[in-house]
Amino acid sequence: MDNKILIEAKDFLDAALDSDDQGRQELISRLESLLEAGDHDSIRDFFYSLHPADGAQALELFSPEKACAFITLLNNETQAQIFNYLPPHFETRMASCLGRAQLARIIGAMSHDERADLYNRLTSEQQEEVLPALAHAEREDIRRLASYSEGTAGAVMTSDYAALSPDITAREALEKLRREAPDKETIYQCYVIDENRRLVGVISLRELLVASPRSLVSEVMNQQPIFAHARDNAEEVASTIAKYDLMAMPIINGDDKLVGIVTFDDVHDILEEEATEDFHRMGSISGHGESLVGVNFREASPWLIIQKRLPWLLALVFVNLLSGAGIAFFESTIEAVVALVFFLPLLIASAGNAGSQSSTLMVRALATGDVKASDWLYLLGKEVGIALTLGLGMALAVSMVGIFRGGPEVAIVVGLTMTVVVLFGSLVGCLLPFLLARMKVDPATASVPLITSIADIGGILIYFSIATWLLEVPAAH
């Protein structure tokens, strides 16, 4: 592969991949031609010239079977690094295409937490096949990390940390770190443990470097480290790390023994998955079976997306039948003052929009910890004032249209309704996240479609009730 082609092929990551299918197909064609021609050295040069994350992105252009043909040409270290950046679903499919010995070599070279995650995603048959091919220490480490329930700190932690004894000097600690650095996830934060592996402190590499060489670690370390338990919720651990701006957090078990650490990289992945789940819930995309979290949307099957979207849409269809029932109940009012229909979409949309805004603000505030569930009463009062101000401003604007469209009486009905429906929608959007949080349900479930449906039903009933009352029209025949 000449340098010109190599440079052009590499540049697809910044250009062709982000532009169009033609750029992707050109790179796919070139790499496949090299593979068919047996030019393995050029393929190796290509992948070795890329960052592992970019190498993983390149492999995703191919089927898992073809991707395996490329990755088996690389050394174990590069294979493991690329595997770390593959999406979970693609990584699992590639693992099923590799032979037992090849898969075991890749797993053995992966970081401790990543290989435990991959092991958990394998079928029971694959797990039984690959374990005997691993070294004893690797088998035990995988079993220990894989034993924690999904969603806990233990499930995302790594056992690949730097530990120091409190009774060694700073010079001895630095020598120890120098020897162990190549095999550790991070050495910027070191964890001090006693002879029973109980966590007694934490010390940074910077503190060791500036300390007197003869100083004991116990004299320099922070004796009150921030830590979490292995069974703690992973999202809460991620929030704590973000709150205190930590590079990593030590994880202990029931006996206060250090069993692992959760790093900033792990936190980033957790928070990204949490944000994705919240966006899916707010868009009413849920259901049973395989999750869309971690799935490349471009590659996701239409059937999977249909499965996630259809249940909520069907449920909301039947909920919205109540809107039709409300309109049917007030047929006599509509027949008496047909001009009212002109303002119906505007009013119910305003209720839904106000509710969606309020809900989004409350869900976000609850997620970031800015507010607590116990703050609901204070925030309710605050929202009443805000919603009334917004509603009155919108009522004034729409009343002007009401005068020209239906006369003063219709203008009064529309203005009053606008004020009430904006207040109603805002209060529903404000209170529903708190109610769900009280019921131990993710507040993000107070989704925009759900809020809008409730606001639609309420808006119709409020509008025609006010119109029937003010215009003195019978509510039904």
Structural features, described:
There is one protein chain. The chain is mostly helical. The protein has three domains: 3-156, MgtE N-terminal fold; 163-266, Roll (CBS-domain), CATH 3.10.580; 302-471, Tetracycline Repressor, domain 2, CATH 1.10.357. It is 66% helix and 5% strand. It has 24 helices and six strands. The strands form two sheets. It has a three-stranded mixed β-sheet with strand order 1-2-3. A hairpin with a 5-residue loop joins strand 2 (189-193) and strand 3. The radius of gyration is 30 Å and the shape is elongated. Mean pLDDT is 82; it is low at 1-7 and 287-293.
In short:
The protein is mainly α and 477 residues long. It has helices at residues 3-10, 16-19, 21-36, 40-48, 52-59, 64-71, 76-85, 88-97, 100-109, 112-121, 124-130, 136-146, 153-156, 170-180, 205-210, 217-220, 234-244, 264-282, 302-329, 331-336, 340-368, 376-406, 408-438, 448-471; strands at residues 163-164, 189-193, 199-204, 228-229, 248-252, 258-263. It is elongated, with a radius of gyration of 30 Å.
Name of the CATH homologous superfamily of the largest domain: SLC41 divalent cation transporters, integral membrane domain
User: What is the CATH topology classification name of the largest domain?
Assistant: Tetracycline Repressor, domain 2
Strand content: 5-15%
How far apart, in Å, are the first and last alpha carbons? Answer: 83 Å
Poorly predicted regions are 1-7, 287-293
Instruction: Report the top-level CATH class of the largest domain.
Output: Mainly Alpha
Q: Which strand order do you get reading across the main beta sheet?
A: 1-2-3
The main β sheet shows up as: 3 strands, mixed
The chain-level structural class is: mainly alpha
Number of strands: 6
Count of discrete structural domains: 3
CATH architecture designation of the largest domain: Orthogonal Bundle
Oligomer: single chain
Order of helices and strands: HHHHHHHHHHHHHEHEEHHEHEEHHHHHHH
Mean pLDDT: 82
Q: Note the overall shape.
A: elongated
State Rg: 30 Å
Specify the number of helices. 24
Give the fraction of residues assigned to helices. 55-70%
Pfam families: CBS, MgtE, MgtE_N
Subcellular location: Cell membrane; Membrane
Keywords: CBS domain, Cell membrane, Magnesium, Membrane, Metal-binding, Transmembrane, Transmembrane helix, Transport
Membrane topology: Multi-pass membrane protein
